[in-house]
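Ticket #4471: structure export looks truncated?
Reporter: QA, pipeline team
Priority: medium

Steps to reproduce: submit the single chain below to the structure queue and open the exported record.
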Amino acid sequence: MTAKHVLTYAADQGAKFVSVRFTDLIGAWHHLTYPITILNEDSFEDGFGFDASSLRGWAAINESDMLLIPDPSRFWMDPFTDEPTLCLIANVMEPITKEGYGLDPRSVAVRAESYLRFTGIADTVYVGPEAEFFVFDNVSYHNNQNSAGFSIDSEEGHWNTSRKGTLEQPNAGYQIKPKGGYVPVAPADTLIDLRNTISLALGEVGIEVECHHHEVATAGQCEIDFKFSNMLHTADNLMLFKYIVKNTAAAYGRTATFMPKPLYGDNGSGMHVHQSLWKDGTPLFAGDEYAGLSEIAKFYIGGLLKHAPALIAFAAPTTNSYKRLVPGFEAPVNLAYSARNRSAAVRIPMFSASPKAKRIEFRPPDPSCNPYITFAALLMAGLDGIQNRIDPGDPLDKDIYDLPPEELANVPSLPGTLDEALTALENDHEFLLKGDVFSTAMIERWIKFKRESEINSLRLRPHPMEFAMYFDV
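Actual output as written to the record:
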């Protein structure tokens, strides 16, 4: 696509405004909106100036001038605005050098794909994420000096079995039990129409839905899977996916969250990431080794497993993430690989014997991550595995959750807290610096922001559970 294609599409759609979108370091979308008359072919070269100093983790006040350079390959009409609005995704560029800003996540992904081609190993990495989320009816929370707490409600929540029904809101008693929500039909699954509406909206903006269903947890946990694509396009699609999900839920009078662990005692929301390398239209992960893998695929797995403790500083980037990544519970924290076995950190799906379907699935990530940075980091770890022929060892086809302690002691595991993951990233990030894909400054900024703004904020506050455990000491 070219700038002319975008301008023609905007005219055909009767666009009156253009929303230029970009992603901050932590992974939130932002935008600036202009009258459509401002947009012309030069806009895709000259960009739009903006102040980056007020964004989380970004430029200092003395270097705050940045440019948004729209990418003509990705555009759509916003389904939620009253006035017809064209949407574009932009890279953040340095205004003087016109190079990608070192802290711009999308520029990291662009450099990662360029580095992949430079290595000659492959020319394309396909990525397919499975981003789970919750849909709640009501949410409230507060963190004051003298009180703190949160409250979540959903008609599906098992705690509502005792709710007294009214004429306006009867209680039919079909609430979902904890960990009992995997793919039920109506009336237990109350969100079918919402997911249908989301799926149709995704199709309208160019995201092809493959399947949707209720997930394991009570209280409205959902999954909507969309078709894989190359890494940059998939990261763009995931940002747009979250936007569509949240705004469609809001239109239904509900609220959607991609927070990894909003509920105690039930499954959190993960984001398993499928990956495969291709070259000249040929899949590189299919072969005659274990589970139909190629040698390249096994080395790619070796890189993921070796660098996994550092990777999850990006892939599971919140303190809340580690309430999901708990040994012996729902998420794979043990660093092993296996065919079909969902208790392994790396799984080889076995649904199809086709070489084109051969891929690996990295299971620890969650949907709170920044997809541009996370997908780029996973690729860099896999490439390091191929370049250094890192052997992942023998597969582990047993249920890791049921291993006796003496066997489990020989299986390495992920860090148990965000702070530990950041320390792992501090000690293991050379593989990310190849090809200038990541920079030391960007990694240091990420670590500093996470420690100062998130870890310390939580560390300084008493937790409500501490009152139950310690108030009477």
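Status: closed, not a bug. The export was complete when the record was re-opened. Leaving a note from the reviewer for reference: The chain has twelve helices and 17 strands.
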